[in-house]
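2024-03-11 09:14:02 INFO queue: dequeued item DUF6894 domain-containing protein, len=80
2024-03-11 09:14:02 INFO validating residues
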Amino acid sequence: MALYFFDVRDDNRLYPDDQGTEMDGLKAARTEAFAALADYVKEIVPTENRRRVAIEVRNEKSKPLLKAVMIFEVEVLGDS
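2024-03-11 09:14:37 INFO prediction written
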């Protein structure tokens, strides 16, 4: 088991994970990153035409390991 940190980056705002989570390897951390990203984006309402949200995974030495990213884009079509 290793300790992984799942930091949230919402556009230019960073919300660091100060506690970390014990995971059974990078594959499990990757799965958790996708799940955490899905949970996070369910709670936000896009207020701009473009918004980028990421879960950045690092190890206990703060070495970046992977990043899961979701980009919201809204395009108004026609007359409205």
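2024-03-11 09:14:37 INFO annotate: The CA atoms of residues 4 and 59 lie 5 Å apart.
2024-03-11 09:14:38 INFO item closed
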